[in-house]
Design a protein that fits this description.
By secondary structure, the chain is α+β, with helices and mostly antiparallel strands. The chain has 14 helices and 18 strands. It has two domains: about 220 residues, Zn peptidases (Aminopeptidase); about 140 residues, Alpha-Beta Plaits, CATH 3.30.70. The structure holds zinc ion (ZN). The site of zinc ion (ZN) has 5 residues, from loops.
Length: about 425
């Protein structure tokens, strides 16, 4: 098989429907394995689920730097009930874009990685250290057959790795006429909380007040209207300082006011949709997702429970969040943690300047800034091995292209020029990464 260009590669990846659940990434993984084999690279399929293997390949370097890990997930989120204008698994190329599920999240990034990895092999690039490519399954549902399993069952694959390149950052974003490249260096911690309201039950024919359902309703309305307290996380501080350092007055001063927790909420509200997008970087979030209570239409339930999908800033223990929720709820509601995915909080910015330098070479207007990711990625699994992930799928996007709104949505697509930009950036990184 001839080595396709990065756009053609993405088209092929999209055509393997790896909607998760159930994932069924096997054919897609086999395609990647065959592709690597076709240029003379060995690649293993490893996993504990026959239908969901991961692909691992390793290229030797000269040993001056610790191994660098490139990892990406090959599963995608469902497309059902979304208004797509093109079939989501056709991999259509149209108007300078590749369309389809996974174009951005993250088969586009996987295509860039495969392209840079094979190119380095074919061009016999002098690599500072070994480069490991891991294409993993199940990221969208927890990484149980993918990164989570690999880290648990086969940590030896990643021995000595300090830095990894993964999702979710790297895309450009325009703000106040400046072009920023967001480099993800940390992510929030997922925490599932159960809120319980109790109250007197009774017969549905009588007059009742202050029941479990109304107590829960009061709490949910309050939660909707009251932001959890603002915290200035060190990564968010770096991001705001880096951005404001590149903006003229008064924009720079305005942005810096966000770093005063007494003003953060007011400033975010003044920033409109941009403020709304930034708000999760300044506080824990809690959203009601599953509501249950009552079994019979004529019986007032004495208990109502609500599942809260919470995302916590890195480094905070779950008790802090429970305390903040309790402050909003008052004594009527009891909270308990159902599941907490603590991510060890550590930050190693050692590779950041190298990445920023590559971006400036390819886009002189581009300013790289560190970013905290409001959701979770496979980065948390690799963090358990002490690996610092940089979410860096470099993409120079048109100013009016809204990356965050296109992910997981209908008509997911990526400009071909952005794919080529990212593949080139990764190629440059493979020539100059360091410890
Ligand atoms: Zn993803």
């Amino acid at each position: 098989m001839a080595r396709p260009d990065v756009a053609g590669l993405l088209q092929s990846l999209i055509r393997h429907d790896t909607t998760n659940p159930p994932g069924n990434e096997r054919e897609c993984a086999q395609y990647c394995q065959r592709l690597l084999n076709s240029v003379g690279l060995a690649a293993d399929l490893v996993g504990d689920d026959y239908n969901r293997p991961n692909v691992i390949s390793r290229m030797p370097g000269r040993g001056d730097a610790p191994p660098l890990l490139l990892y990406g997930h090959i599963d995608v989120v469902p497309t059902a009930a979304q208004p797509w204008e093109v079939p989501p698994f056709e991999g259509r190329r149209q108007d300078g874009y590749i369309w389809g599920r996974g174009a951005l999240d993250m088969k586009g990034g996987v295509a860039m990685m495969l392209d840079a990895f094979m190119r380095a092999h074919l061009e016999q690039t002098d690599l500072p250290g070994d480069v490991i490519l891991a294409l993993v399954t199940d990221e969208e549902a927890g990484g149980f057959t993918g990164a989570g399993w690999l880290v648990e069952a086969h940590p030896e694959y990643f021995a000595g790795v300090r830095y990894a390149i993964g999702e979710f950052g790297g895309f450009s974003k325009s703000y106040r006429g400046r072009k920023f490249y967001m480099v993800q260096v940390a992510e929030k911690q997922g925490c599932r909380v159960e809120a319980v309201a109790r109250g007197p039950g009774g017969h549905g024919s009588l007059v009742h007040h202050d029941t479990a359902p109304t107590r829960m309703a009061r709490f949910l309305v309050k939660l909707d209207r009251t932001p959890l307290p603002y915290h200035i996380h060190p990564v968010t501080r770096r991001m705001i300082e880096a951005m404001s350092g590149r903006l003229p007055l008064p924009d720079s001063a305005f942005l810096r006011l966000l770093l005063n927790p007494a003003l953060t909420g007011r400033m975010l509200r003044r920033m409109g949709s941009v403020g709304q997008e930034m708000e999760p970087l300044f506080r824990h979030t809690a959203n009601a997702t599953i509501i249950s209570g009552g079994e019979k239409a004529n019986v007032i339930p004495s208990e109502v429970t609500v599942n809260l999908d919470c995302r916590m800033l890195p480094g905070y223990p779950a008790e802090d969040l429970l305390g903040e929720l309790q402050d909003i709820a008052g004594p009527d509601i009891e909270f308990g943690v159902v599941r907490f995915d603590p991510k060890p909080w550590a930050l190693n910015m050692g590779l950041f300047d190298t990445l920023a330098g590559i971006i400036t070479e390819q886009d002189p207007e581009g300013v790289s800034v560190p970013m905290l990711m409001p959701a979770g990625t496979d980065g948390r699994h690799f963090a358990r091995l002490g690996i610092q992930t940089y979410g860096w799928m470099p993409m120079n996007l048109p100013a009016d292209f809204d990356f965050l709104k296109t992910i997981h949505a209908a008509n997911e697509r990526v400009p071909v020029s952005a794919l080529e930009f990212g593949a080139e950036a990764l190629h440059r990184l493979l020539q100059r990464f360091h410890g």
